[in-house]
Every structure is written in structure tokens, then in C-alpha cells.
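Hi Y.,

Following your request, here is the sequence exactly as I used it, all 254 residues.
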Amino acid sequence: ILEVKNLNVTDDKGVHRVKDVSFNVAAGEILGIAGVAGNGQSELLEVLGGYEKATGTILVNGVELDLTGSKSDGRSRRARGIAHVPEDRQREGLIMDYAAWENTAFGYHHDEKFQRSGLFMDNNAIKQDTIEKMERFDVRPPDPKLAAKNFSGGNQQKIVLAREIERNPDLLLIGQPTRGVDIGAIEFIHQQIVALRDQGKAILLVSVELEEILSLSDRVAVMFDGMIMGERLPAETDEKELGLLMAGMTGDVA
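Below is the corresponding structure, written out as C-alpha cells. Let me know if you'd prefer a different format.
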């Protein structure tokens, strides 16, 4: 589903954040990206999500993505079957002062089922869609009119997950899926990620939680200083080995 070749990202301060990164994610697979925050994982997600520029090649279902220019944006990515649950739900996933029903439509408000005419959205259709999503994703309280800022962190995350997963994407990008989330919501969120994988979707999971990476991933890639230091199968590695890779150590770690 996803093939990344020789990807490089330099930020607006001239710092080389992602350095010649290559990897792939197959259908029905979760690739976990492990690493200490600040080692290029965020920039990688931003490029794939369409709001960071890069050089290199990214293919989705065999078709190349634009990495610069007008076709490198969130809407273009969504049209290519990419859904994105960003690392910071409050800054990038939601507009906190807006109601839940407005947030569930963001990014997908051009969908025909949300349009009443060429000029107006069908707000009633969006609200009904939100009620159904809240029920399926156990969002509490199930009030589509409540502002996003008035939900707990776990329920905010469920709103973002419901919006993205229910678009039936070919590829789901998900960053720090359970950061600041209570234990009950963590289990639910993990179940949704695995269920999507089991439907044959490709998932790129970025998390600083090694236990989460090891429990969810089919393969684990470790990033350090913008580079992928190695790949491991969860059954054949442990937190000690991954920790050494995360520190940039690639020698024998038996």
C-alpha cells in the first residue's frame, strides 16, 4: 500500500530532520515507528499527511504522491485514501472551540452526503452522522453539540479516530494514539487499530510507548536522528534492544 524511498525533510530553519528514509507498509499490516520524540517521526507523518514538504518518492497503491506544490495537502491525501490521526489532537486533530459535529466533518465536509446544495452543507446530515459515530466509538457524553474542549482527552481522541477510520482508508497514519488517554479508552483505541488492520488496511503507527509499539505492530522500525536504524519483528526483539537502537546503537545488542 505504502512505499517510501529516499525521503528527506529539511525544516524552515535548515535542519535536516528526515535523512534518506525508505520503508514500506503492506495491506493488512501495522508498521510501528519507535523512537524518542524529536528524531524525525513527526516530520515523517507530516509529509505523508500533506502538510510538510520533502524530497524523495512516496507511492500509495503504486501511484506517486506530490511532495511539494498545490497537490501536496491534506485534501489531496484524503482523496488518495490516506486518513490521518495526528500526534497532537488539540492542535492538529480538532478545533477545540467547535462542536463535536463540526469536528467530525472537518476535512470531509466536501463529501456529497454532507452537501445540501452547491453552496450549503447539510448540517442535519452531519449531526446525524456524528450521533452514529459517537455510538459506535463510545464517545461520552454522546452529545454532538458539545464543544470539543469539553470532552476528556480519551473522548477527544475517539472523535478524531471515528472521523478518520470510518472513511475506510487504504492507509491510516496514526501518531501517539493513546497519549493523555485513560486506561479504558486505550484498550478501545487499540482494538479499533487492530480491527482496521484485520480489514486489510495498511497502518503506520508512531508512538514513544515501546509497550504499545510491541503489542500492536507486525514490524517495528526504529528512528534516531532522522534515520531508520533498523527493523525488527516484535516476537524477535525486546524493549532493551529497541532502546539501544533508539539511542543510535546498531552493533551487536545481544
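DSSP finds nine helices and ten strands in the chain.

Thanks again,
Q.
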